[in-house]
Write a structure and sequence with these properties.
five-stranded mixed beta sheet; globular; alpha+beta; about 200 residues; single chain; 6 helices
Length: about 200
Amino acid sequence: ECFFNTILRLPSTKAPHQMYGTAIHYALEHLYEALKKGEKQSASDLVSYFITALLREPLSAQDKGVYTEKGRSALTNYFEAKKETFVADALTEVAFSVDIPLPSDNERTEIHISGKLDRIELTNGRHAHVTDYKTGKVKSKNDILGKTQASDGSVYRQLIFYKLLLDADARFVFKGGLIDFIEPNPSGKHKEEPFTITNEEK
C-alpha cells in the first residue's frame, strides 16, 4: 500500500480514520497559529478548529457524528493535559526537502528525500525537539520500538527518518523525538513517549 500510494502516487480515497487524523492535525496547527498571534486559546477553540476541518471531509453522516464526538472528547482531554506546555514559537507542519549523501560504494552519490514534521520546538536557537502526533490507540514504548509481536517498529522508524531529515539541514540539530498520543489511554490519561535517536540507528 505504501509503495502504490507514496512511490507511484496512485490516486486513492482516504479512510474515515485518516480523515479524522487530518482534522486533528489541522486543529493543532491552527491552535499554534493563534498562539503566535497572541490570541488566548481554550479547549473549545481547539475543538472548533477540529470540527471545521472534519466537516470538509467526505464522511457519511453517521461517521461525522461518531468522529465529531470522538474528537471533541479527545481534544478537550488533550488540551487540559497539555495547556501549560503550549509554546507560541513552536514550528508546525514543517516541510523538508533534502539531499542525503550515500556511501561511496553506491552508483549514486546522494538521494533526495522529503517529509513533513508535525511540530518542532527549538532550544538554544538550533536544537530541534520533534513531536509526532498520533491518533488512535495508545501504544506502549515497546510497541513503538517494535519489540512486541504485534508491532513492526514503523512508528519508531518514523522518528529516525525525521532525524535523517533534520541532520541534513544546517538550520537544525536534532535533539530528540516525542510520540504524542492525542487520545487518552484506557484510564483517561494523556500519554507521550520521548526518544533519543542515535547516529547508529540513523
